[in-house]
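New to this. Explain the following:
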Amino acid sequence: MHIPCETVPLSDRSFGGRRFDIIYHRDVLSHLYEPISVFQNINRALNENGLLVFETGNIADVREEYYQWFSQFLYPDHLFFFGERSIGILLERTGFKCLAIYREAIALELLLQKMLWKSKDYLKDRRIEVEDARQEGGFDSSARGISIKRRLRHMYRFVSSYLTKLGAILPKDGWPLKLLVIAQKGSA
């Protein structure tokens, strides 16, 4: 299946001027240099009553005592930190009506990430050699090995999906959250 993609900023000329029923982005908002103009362009690219759906963090709403749970804030990658109030203002200024915000606590995921982040330098160049004693009768010298860091990254992705599900029952007030925002196009 061919999915049309463009690697340029969204504009009136994007995708040949086509309009969409839904535009979705994940973990992009905090990276935008000009979030207002980008959201205005998204509004123009949507059909009447089209939906903007996106996921982002709520760093602007997180109580200071939880900052220690973050392993890093990745400056200058992250240019803005939004919270529910600032997301509401952004949506209103760019012609959207917020229909719903779904919240999931990510505290357990952050704690796991921080624990793994502390060990990343130690694991940087270490390798696990692949051994296939049962099939080959000994060590497979042709195996190049898989980095411990890479194995931990895969484990993190697997475990974090379950931790996020647990996050649905954790407290939300002032905690680090993943927000899923659903907004409908209004007038720009």
